[in-house]
Target: MROH1 protein
Amino acid sequence: PSLGRAMARHAGPRLPLIVKNLIPALSSAFDSQRVTATAFFAELLNSNVVNDLILLETMMDTMTGRQKDSCLLVRMLALRGLGNIASGSPEKVRKHGPTLLASMVNGMDDKDDPHNLVALEAMSSLSKLLDHLEERDIQSMLLHIAIRIRPFFDSEQPELRRSSIALFGSLSRFGGAEGEVFLEQVLNGLVTLLLHLQDPQPDVVKACKFALRMCGPSMGCEGLRDMFLNHLHQDRGLHFGEFINNVCKHLMQSYPEMLNRLISTNLFYFKSPWVDIRAAAPMFIGFLVLHVEEEHCQQVDLDQLISGEWGAGNP
Model:
């Protein structure tokens, strides 16, 4: 990366010949050569010099072509390079939007990615590209992406939790045309986002605050929207018990028919590996039951609730 940055800054006129001579290395039989060439190209794409030298399309095609590489690191670096176009040539992102978006979605769906490193790079790169993509291009893939990233909210890897939750928040800006469909995704992820306000990793907590603030307007409940905006400041502490009590009050006023689903999802977190989240889940249920109107109480099976047998599966 350092070499790529230095070359972009000081060796512009020589870059076309260097790029031409390096392209064959991307098809080398040796992983190390493909990794090195891809890393170099990925860093060059961070600079507008490739656009000035009319190299952008060529390099973008080479990065797209590496998505099927047998080496996981090459696939990861190729996505990083495509994401770097957002800072190197932001004015070109819209033109190539469908191709870039398809690459990110393919990265999230990578089947040979046991530690989800390619998926993480795809989510990080997509977050960088979102501000420059056409809204219609994003909306066509919105539901697929939202469903795909949802399982990462509970990943054991903090960076996967942070990146997926932050991306979900950014995607909510484009939920307008999907209307009820994206609202359903917000409601499906709501308990998880609220409980992870108690996440042991501060960066994950910040991502949850951001996502909830972004999702608030799409929920059709002014009280929740205002609570998320007024109480979920990035660098300010939160009295979780008081906050979740008020959230439950608004939820039971606006979505009383969701009581069963909200309780069931919380019960799943009774077995969470994080102690503060395990403690937050029964508190959440308690406040839900406290604020539900009597006519909706029949949704609650007290025997199952007391035994904690719900939520055996993933929410």
